[in-house]
Specification:
- It is a single chain.
- This protein has one domain.
- It is built from 2 helices and no strands.
- It is rod-shaped.
- α1 packs antiparallel against α2.
- By secondary structure, it is mainly α.
Length: 105
């Protein structure tokens, strides 16, 4: 068959090759973790932003009411129809926000 020294040399090369492969796998796994870390952070930030958007919409309603009151205080000659129109638009917007939030769960 094969000479003993050649088989021993092949076994040593095989072991060295396995160690190199194991070492490269560890290096690649470490590099992959470093590369994907910013992607994970961006994904987490996008999830938090999506969760905060309905709340931002709800916070806009009181702000809109405050702005409307300030504008109406300065414009005393505004008709009642205009006031009711703004109230109706605010109610419709609030209903749409609540219904959208209820659908999303």
């Amino acid at each position: 068959m094969y000479p003993e020294n050649e088989l021993t040399r092949l076994a040593v090369r095989k072991t060295a090759t396995r160690l190199r492969i194991r070492s490269r796998r560890a290096e690649i796994a470490l590099l992959a973790a470093q590369v994907t870390k910013p992607i994970g952070l961006m994904e987490a930030a996008s999830i938090k932003i999506r969760m905060a958007l309905p709340l931002a919409g709800l916070a806009a309603i009181p702000f809109g009411i405050l702005v409307r009151r300030l504008v109406m205080a300065r414009m005393r000659g505004v008709s009642t129809v205009l006031r009711w129109t703004s109230n109706t638009l605010l109610a419709v917007r609030a209903a749409r926000l609540f219904m959208g939030a209820a659908r999303r769960g």
